[in-house]
Amino acid sequence: MALFKLQNVEDFYEIGDVLGSGHYGQVCAVRERATGARWAGKFLKLRRSASSRLGLERKSVEKEVEILQALPHCNIMALKDVFESRAEVVLIVELIGGGELFDFVAEKENLSEGEAIEFMKQILEAVSFMHSKKIAHFDLKPENMMLLDKEVSHPHIKIIDFGLAHCFIQGKEYKSLSGTPQYIAPEVINYEPLSVASDMWSIGVITYILLSGMSPFQGDTDEETLRNIVSMNYEFEDRYFSDTSAVAKDFIQNLLVKDPSGRLTAEECLVHPWIKPLTRNDAASRNRSSINMKNFKKFNARRKWKMSYNMVWACNRLCRMQLLCKSDTQEDSDLRKCESDQEDTETKPASLIRRRLSSNS
């Protein structure tokens, strides 16, 4: 059961600079008054009625809080406190200041498979812990893999954004069409019963991209990408995988399996020869192999451009909606009072834009 405190968050935390903002609220740096410790505050605007168009439903926030409270792990974003008022919920979470993993990798001149494996191992350990609790993330992608601090020799990875995560209940079927097109599994597209195995498909896609700088199923449109996923239309082109070890390709092939029951689990991935070499020759082979940095840098630049474009488009669309709603209210304010419009003018904008169903490339 999620625990929401009814006290004023500012009695316990000093609110600092805004770190990001979006459709549902904003994220600010905060300092705990009692200890001086620095955290991040996610100020999420709640819908005040079923007819409101702005804000999040309380039950969706409650679900995310319950999941984060169930996942105390060094590679998963920590949740410290939750405060609730009539208009918003404030999540006090770990301050993760190292940026995205893929941005960190793109800054390097070269990277061996051995170094890439150190990142994948941390991700797999977090996912393994998550799955042991019967929880699936359902939105594993580069944007949700962050570094706690990049100015260290061995950066610590944190998985974030559990807005689509789900805790499975024995005997209860779960289906969903949510996710980001190039990372979702075939069973999501086909609207079939889901399991934690859907996350393992995403791990396969992420590994493929990390090693080659190419997305295995990316098409010119979301529709084409989804068709490629369902038809298992991918390959290891020599021009992108010429420096990739055979054992790394085997790792990916055992994750990009259409039948969820045939995919490696997170536990099995951790003992796969690519992650945990069986012999010295295996270890030497992966250290001689390297990721395609030239192509990876291009992929990451396109991905960042796409994210910026999507954010600008979303902000422009929101502004147009606000102007239209204000116009309607002025024309007939007695007939209909737009509660969501009033919320929008009386409070600050809301949380990190959830890049759901965005075609990041």
UniProtKB/TrEMBL annotation:
GO terms for biological process: intracellular signal transduction; positive regulation of apoptotic process. SUPFAM superfamilies: Protein kinase-like (PK-like) (SSF56112). Gene3D superfamilies: Phosphorylase Kinase, domain 1, Transferase(Phosphotransferase) domain 1. Keywords: ATP-binding, Kinase, Nucleotide-binding, Serine/threonine-protein kinase, Transferase. One of its GO terms (cellular component) is nucleus. Residues 13-275 form the Protein kinase domain. ATP binds at K42. Residues 330-361 are annotated as: Disordered. InterPro entries: Kinase-like_dom_sf, Prot_kinase_dom, Protein_kinase_ATP_BS, Ser/Thr_kinase_AS. One of its GO terms (molecular function) is protein serine/threonine kinase activity. Belongs to the protein kinase superfamily. This is Protein kinase domain-containing protein. It comes from Denticeps clupeoides.
